[in-house]
Amino acid sequence: MNKKIFVHIDWKKTSLWFPFLIISLLLIIIPLIVVIVNTFVPAEGLTIADNWNILNQTIWTKIGKSFFISIVSTIICLLISYPFCYFLIQIQNKKIKQILFFLSTTPMWLGSMIILISLKLFFDKLNGALNSTYGDIYTIIGITYLYIPFMMMPLYNVLELLPKNLINASKDLGRSSFYTFFKVIVPFSKPGLISGITMVLLPSTSVVAVPQFLNNSPDGSMIGDIIMNQGMQATESQIALSRVCVLSVVVSILMMIVYSLIVFIPKVWPVIIKKIKRVGNE
User: Which pTM was predicted?
Assistant: First the structure.
């Protein structure tokens, strides 16, 4: 006897996904396909290998330098944001807390160009000369200033939900403030840490204009600046278009790898530690 299987589809709930699917298709999937396809479109008289020849030693050095600068900037953002957010949640007066949080996130609502110009003028004034900012340290300062709100917001939102009884229980058990911080507060704020690190590390790797404004060194550019320069040439050159697509794909893949490490290592590491301890006990 044949049995008919009927699948009930709730079209009301399904229809809620349509706008998301359309937006993803138009803004993510189709542009991504176009970029990937263009990496394999040779210019007239050239081959596909010529597109990928842009990945020379200089480009890999720039990519490595960009990741190094973004990592240092992310660490500085974290070292500033975490104690500040923890101090902020201790304040009982809500108005003072709101004012301090608003002031700390001003780089988000001020234009980035205004911030870069202000920092440039400030450092030139300190150094006593125009265009006197040389070195990656100025790029790191600019990235830190621009992206520190993106570290503060997820950390503050998580720490604001920290139950006071967890801290009190740790103290009642005789634990030190150092132990309480690293064994209670930090694990509780792990989602905010992961979000903040991701929101600072990945965008700052391909940041544009910050090195051009704040670092006058001949080799001060980052991979984002190279991608932008190639993109400007792509309006008139097929080879430049293909090469900027190659750079975009490679940098995107590297960012996806870094993002995977940030997300999955905190989940996998405790499992590895448990297995190591189990093997040691055996």
Answer: 0.84
